[in-house]
Write a structure and sequence with these properties.
Strand order of the largest sheet: 1-2-3
Number of helices: 18
Order of helices and strands: HHHHHHHHHHHHHEHEEHHHH
């Protein structure tokens, strides 16, 4: 373990901070704490453990991170733990019905359920094991915040538990998809952070990693738009917001009115699309070149971006993605106190100092960030079978769209609230005509509420043909629901498809045409709400269990036959 012995106890090595670090405006958690092995808390409570030995075999998992990193670890882990507790009930509810779905055949990350880092399989958990895993993960995150335990050990334990828990919820509406993919990478970079007297270089790597993820999203949009031969602009933003209005309608009428207003203003759709691209392209340069003000501004813009996506599209990145923005709190504190950025406090100087202090951990962190860069530039997520999540190029919404042009059209209406947890997320995946793990009619009937899928496959781009079962290609309108669709609803959807089919590509900028589509969408939603979900009456399983139903039926008919009239006992009319 590399302890340095003293006269009666093991003493920690004390080193001075980098010159001027104490005045950098960081939140101070400095205290004379020492780390102990967990068993020593019970057996030898008075024995100290070396904090940051210079020997090769240093107590890595017992080594305390720098105080600036400790602040981030505390806030990050508490925020993520809170999100897990708030959403665990929905996750367990989802998992109870998940076993009946074809998607339960797999475990992994992302909606394709890929193996961790592309090659590490994730085991299936039972319902009780999943419940135990989430509480172990929450406990591990909380212990990582404790100054007298081994924070690196519990951070690494949280890193491993993440794959067990989130890997079994890969298609759940809150934990699935890309919303939680940032967690394991941040945890691993924190595990590799420097010693207690070192500089906060690991926070710089966290910011760079996050910036590369945003940059990858922008690059994927540009590259995919070139492949499809269309611009990623206002019509694309219009189409994706419309998707959210189908599958994730907001409960507040004021938000629904805002969505309709935006969609009918082509210049606002274009502004939102271009500002999103500028945000993703410019976020990392703003952080690296903008000083403290640029870093704080970048964090505020990113948080606002995710809030807007949540409101307009119903995609919630708040519980498991946004806690990373605590990394910018020291910059905000420095600005608040009016402290100037000294030369040794720049991100380049901090990284250089970190390499001198901890070259091994620094190189491991740099290699991990480099892997994210390679995944980004190679667009690994867009290559079938090449995904290596949680490293990602973030190709969400990369396909350029135009509702009024020749493209696949479709939507989902459901009683399941996909804005919250507890449901299988079938907004863009697992539709009944999908080539991979499609939901069948019997699966839809197992859902707790009404659900209807509609799709027009008259125009399928060659790059998307592989996602569709061949027999459903070239269909004007495909419908599937777990209830009997009324003639009015079917007629409305047919009219919607007809209007879009007869439209011109430039009609996405025509407020009247867009308004007509919105009216038909609203009418479809109202007709959908008017349907009644007829369920078979529940049976008393305890009473029926183990009975021979054929024998019971025969006995019942025998009893009824005995009541038939005979010559000796004819029916008698009663006055």
């Amino acid at each position: 373990w590399g302890f340095k012995t003293g006269s009666s106890a093991l003493h920690s090595i004390q080193r001075e901070y980098t010159a001027g670090m104490s005045g950098s405006g960081w939140f101070h958690l400095r205290s004379d704490v020492t780390y102990r092995r967990p068993e020593s808390l019970l057996l030898e409570p008075g024995v100290e453990v070396c904090l940051d030995s210079e020997e090769i075999l240093q107590p890595f998992f017992l080594c305390e991170p720098p105080e600036q990193v400790r602040l981030f670890i505390t806030l990050f882990c508490l925020s993520v733990g809170f999100g897990l507790v708030v959403n665990h009930a929905g996750a367990l509810q989802f998992y109870s019905s998940f076993v009946k779905m074809p998607q339960s055949e797999r475990r992994g990350l992302g909606y394709t359920a890929c193996k961790a880092y592309g090659f590490i399989p994730i085991p299936k958990l039972s319902h009780s094991q999943l419940q135990a895993t989430v509480w172990l993960l929450v406990t591990s995150l909380l212990f990582a915040c404790h100054p007298h335990l081994a924070p690196r050990f519990f951070l690494f334990a949280s890193f491993l538990l993440y794959f067990l828990y989130f890997g079994n919820l890969y298609c759940e509406s809150k934990h699935g998809g890309h919303g939680g993919l940032l967690l394991p990478s941040v945890l691993l970079l924190l595990v590799l952070s420097g010693g207690p007297q070192g500089s906060p270089w690991s926070l710089v790597f966290v910011k760079i990693f996050l910036g590369l993820v945003y940059l990858a999203g922008a690059v994927s949009k540009v590259v995919v738009s070139c492949i499809f031969g269309r611009r990623w602009a206002g019509s694309t933003m219009q189409a994706y917001i419309m998707d959210g209005m189908w599958s994730r309608p907001h409960r507040l009428s004021i938000v629904r009115s805002l969505q309709k207003f935006l969609l009918q203003k082509w210049y606002l759709c274009t502004f939102l699309a271009l500002s999103g691209l500028i945000f993703e392209f410019g976020w990392l340069p703003l952080v690296l070149l903008g000083g403290r003000m640029g870093s704080v501004l970048a964090a505020a813009i990113a948080f606002s971006f995710h809030m807007g996506v949540d409101v307009l599209q119903g995609l919630d990145f708040l519980p498991f993605w946004c806690p990373v923005f605590w990394a910018f709190l020291p910059d905000l504190q420095s600005l608040w106190h009016g402290q100037e950025l000294m030369p040794h406090q720049t991100w380049t100087a901090v990284l250089a100092q970190g390499f001198e202090e901890e070259p091994c951990r620094w190189l491991m962190s740099a290699m991990y960030v480099l892997l994210q860069f390679i995944v980004s530039v190679r667009l690994m997520d867009c290559r079938e079978g090449k995904e290596c999540l949680p490293l990602t190029c973030c190709p969400m919404f990369a396909v350029p769209r135009n509702l009024f042009d020749s493209e696949v059209r479709g939507g989902v209406m459901t009683d399941c609230n996909l804005r919250t947890g507890g449901s299988i997320d079938f907004a863009y995946n697992f539709f009944p005509w999908h080539s991979d793990l499609p939901l069948q009619l019997e699966n839809l009937k197992a859902l707790p509420g009404r659900t209807l899928f509609w799709m027009s496959t008259s125009h399928v781009h060659p790059k998307l043909v592989r996602l569709l079962q061949p027999e459903f290609d070239g269909k004007e309108l495909l419908l599937m629901a777990n209830f009997e669709i009324s003639a009015d609803l079917q007629t409305t959807l047919e009219e919607l498809v007809k209007v879009l089919e007869e439209a011109k590509p430039e009609d996405w900028m025509n407020s009247e045409k867009v308004g007509q589509i919105l009216d038909l969408q609203t009418t479809s939603q109202e007709l959908f709400e008017g349907h009644r979900m007829e369920k078979a009456p529940a049976q008393n399983l305890k009473e029926l269990h183990g009975l021979d139903l054929m024998a019971v039926t025969a006995d019942l008919f025998s009893c009824l036959t005995s009541l038939a009239p005979t010559e000796q006992h004819p029916y008698v009319a009663c006055d």
